[in-house]
Amino acid sequence: MELGAFLRLTVIAVMLTAAASQTTPTGYANHTVGGSAGWFFNSTTNTSAANYSSWAATQTFNLGDFLIFNTNSNQTVIQTYNESTFRSCTTDDALNNDTIQYGGGSTAFGEALTIPVPLTIKGPNYFFSDAEDGAQCQSGLAFEIQVNHGLGLPPSLNQPPPPPYVTPPGPDFSQTPPVTIAGGSQAPGNSGFKNGVNVRGVACALLFGVAFLCFRH
Ligand SMILES: *[C@@H]1O[C@H](CO)[C@@H](O)[C@H](O)[C@H]1NC(C)=O
Ligand SMILES: *[C@@H]1O[C@H](CO)[C@@H](O)[C@H](O)[C@H]1NC(C)=O
Ligand SMILES: *[C@@H]1O[C@H](CO)[C@@H](O)[C@H](O)[C@H]1NC(C)=O
Ligand SMILES: *[C@@H]1O[C@H](CO)[C@@H](O)[C@H](O)[C@H]1NC(C)=O
Ligand SMILES: *[C@@H]1O[C@H](CO)[C@@H](O)[C@H](O)[C@H]1NC(C)=O
Ligand SMILES: *[C@@H]1O[C@H](CO)[C@@H](O)[C@H](O)[C@H]1NC(C)=O
Ligand SMILES: *[C@@H]1O[C@H](CO)[C@@H](O)[C@H](O)[C@H]1NC(C)=O
């Protein structure tokens, strides 16, 4: 076989692979955080009910998907786009425009809650519980995800209602009121593509098939 022909076919195979990697999901997904373990912390054993980083590594997250937190009022759900806030395990210094507290309003311990959180901004999204002065977060009730573009935001989430940010108690109590996060805006991050292995598999299959055809002639 001519080297030139082989190179041309290789280029075609690579282009086909690139096209295959553009495939988008067929719909929006709901991800139950922690699977059947839910979003819980045991203050006696000082452990979270699951390894949430491991759980997140099994999922692919896209714009318009929801995270479903099955939990109770002993834990909180904080979503932030700010890594320092995430690392600090507290919302005390958080800016109103990059951090959202879900749920809240409950004063009773152990009250069952299901908290749906829409993914509306591409790139890194961080989640943690700030209950027990950050101890839950420090001991595993925290995780980070990468949100890909997928199908983009559905109309129902293009203009999300103002998130119910709760001003954390403390000396800075008298700060400015909550600010709406523009749902359509995009964080600078990337759309980390998680299916690299599959794409590589397709590339090999294509190259192999092309090479096979060449050698037959
Ligand atoms: C996902 O969760 C949201 C929020 O609870 C809900 O509106 C939607 O119907 C759920 N979608 C699916 C496919 O279960
Ligand atoms: C926490 O763990 C202890 C020891 O395993 C167990 O007895 C207790 O029921 C757990 N508490 C909750 C709320 O799950
Ligand atoms: C969770 O699992 C990861 C490996 O997937 C490990 O590196 C990490 O230490 C675990 N976290 C906890 C809190 O056990
Ligand atoms: C992240 O939040 C911290 C407060 O925790 C703030 O000082 C910092 O400016 C924020 N970073 C960005 C990029 O907004
Ligand atoms: C939040 O506001 C600060 C300035 O107040 C700005 O620097 C930062 O980019 C904003 N973050 C987001 C996610 O809009
Ligand atoms: C919730 O927290 C309270 C106070 O720490 C504790 O007594 C109770 O057992 C917890 N309930 C659950 C279901 O974890
Ligand atoms: C729980 O773990 C955190 C961080 O790992 C630690 O600071 C805290 O002292 C522990 N609390 C208990 C009651 O063991």
UniProtKB/TrEMBL annotation:
GO MF entry, a single one: electron transfer activity
InterPro entries: Cupredoxin, Phytocyanin-like, Phytocyanin_dom
GO cellular component: plasma membrane
PROSITE patterns per record: PHYTOCYANIN
First and last residue of the signal peptide: 1-21
One protein family per Pfam: Cu_bind_like
Annotated Phytocyanin domain residues: 29-149
Entry keyword set: Signal
PANTHER family linked to this entry: BLUE COPPER PROTEIN, OS12G0454600 PROTEIN
Protein name: Phytocyanin domain-containing protein
Organism: Manihot esculenta (Cassava)
